[in-house]
Design brief:
Elements lengths: L2 H12 L22 E5 L3 H7 L4 H22 L3 E8 L7 H24 L2 E6 L7 H13 L6 E9 L1 H15 L6 H5 L12 E4 L18 E4 L9 H12 L9
Parallel strand pairs: 1-2, 1-5, 2-4, 3-4, 5-6
Length: 257
């Protein structure tokens, strides 16, 4: 069964897009909808390579291919925002050769994938601390954002050199400079790396690990979490659909009854 067929069947069986009987706060998505915003902690590239007797770089390359599949499936599913954890502020502590291979892979992937993102009407955005990145990567990131700015089918946010605590600290400094004591959450959210990024309704983590790992700490306050045992390079459209189906069966109360 193809991903498109499964999506159609899931919408029928789960009544996706139909309002729920139970009440939810104003502005919250009704139970049973496809989540508008999904975030993924893409974990397991290294273990995938190790189990196959391959270098870690092969796992990262396979992970990049998995991302391509999932981005397309997210657009097919009707998801508006997809945020992926690509490189954390803690990842600088990995072996230097692995970090260098990752940076080269990021550059190569941007070069090769941007034309297809434009064709598929996917807008790419990067969130994180850019100033620590090499000029060659920053230049490609900026060019990719400019080239895909007109994409309206899906917004792909890539967390690059990102840490949730660092984002909150950076936002707090800006908040203190730009807003007065009467300002609240809405104003604080405007100081985050991606102020127009919708809070994720569903956060997926692969590889069987069950922790948030400093990812979207502010934005995920009321997210639903889904943990998959699948290593990221093996994660595909059917796995995304399974996560969405689990989300659709949950009742989101936002602290209410």
């Amino acid at each position: 069964m193809t991903i498109r067929t499964r999506l159609k069947a899931a919408r029928t069986v789960l009544r996706l897009g139909q309002p729920a009987v139970s009440e939810v706060p104003a502005g919250a998505p009704p139970r049973g909808e496809i989540p508008r915003s999904v975030a993924i902690i893409m974990d397991g590239n290294g273990r995938w390579a190790e189990r196959r007797g391959l270098p870690v770089a092969a796992g990262h390359s396979a992970g990049a291919k998995a991302l391509k599949r999932v981005v397309r499936a997210a657009g097919d599913a009707g998801i508006d925002d997809l945020t992926v954890f690509s490189f954390s502020t803690e990842n600088w502590g990995r072996p230097a050769d692995e970090v260098e291979e990752l940076m080269s892979l990021f550059c190569d992937q941007i070069d090769s994938e941007v034309p297809e993102l434009v064709e598929e009407r996917v807008q790419i955005r990067f969130i994180g601390r850019r100033e620590q990145l090499a000029d060659r990567l920053r230049e490609r990131m900026e060019a990719a954002e400019a080239a895909t700015a007109g994409g309206e089918r899906l917004r792909l946010f890539v967390a690059m050199n990102y840490g949730g605590r660092q984002e909150i600290l950076d936002a707090a400094r800006r908040f203190a400079e730009e807003y007065g004591p009467e300002a609240g959450e809405a104003e604080f959210a405007q100081c985050l790396y991606g102020p127009d990024l919708r809070d994720p309704e569903l956060v997926i983590r692969t590889s069987g690990e069950q922790r948030i790992s400093n990812f979207l700490l502010w934005q995920s306050a009321y997210a639903e979490f889904y943990f998959s045992d699948r290593l990221w390079p093996d994660f595909g459209p059917d796995d995304l659909l399974d996560a969405v189906a689990h989300y659709a069966r949950r009742e989101r109360r936002f602290g209410g009854r």
